[in-house]
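Example record

One chain of 210 residues, shown exactly as stored in the release files.
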Amino acid sequence: MTFDLNVIPTTFDMLHAGLAASSVLLLAIAVSRKSKVVEKVVEKPIEKIIEVEKPVEKIVEVEKIVEVEKVIEKVVEVESKLATASTDSAMQLLSLMQQEARIIDFLQEDLTSFSDEEVGAAARVVHSGGKKVIGDYFVLSPIRSEDEESRLTIEEGFNPQAIRLTGNVTGSAPFSGILVHKGWKADNVNLPKLSENYDASIIAPAEVEL
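Predicted structure tokens for this chain:
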């Protein structure tokens, strides 16, 4: 087969321009398809990364649950200690109040058959004996130094164990009110030390006269 070189066009006419434009268009389409393929290939590792993040979130949730369980265990431990706390000191104080003030005898007595004068006379014994016990074994001081029936302001951050609000309690501190009672706190307690075999449940022994 032979080619006639004279037939090959030597000028750039509209036909050649159209062919050139078509070639460029086809090249652009091919490049865009390759970019889409690259995008799809890149998407798969990203999905895998997201899938890896989900177990990490679950691990964090598990750690939070473990922390909550530890807090619950501490609360249960404190409650169990409170439930099993020794009552010897309370029994000892009650025994001292019975010994010095006959407090249990007075409280267990049916006073309906006694006159006010008789009750008052018995109350004096309870008062003097109880005051002796408090003075011998406790050092007490008032919580508030202001005079009772005076107006005062309770600032924010007050101790609700030391100050009890009564009446129409609404809103938040500061509160303004009337001091009804100064309150008491124990600065020191000096109860006698109990012996090892002492039975604190015996508040007052039975008395037998021979």
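Notes: The first strand starts at residue 138 and ends at 142.
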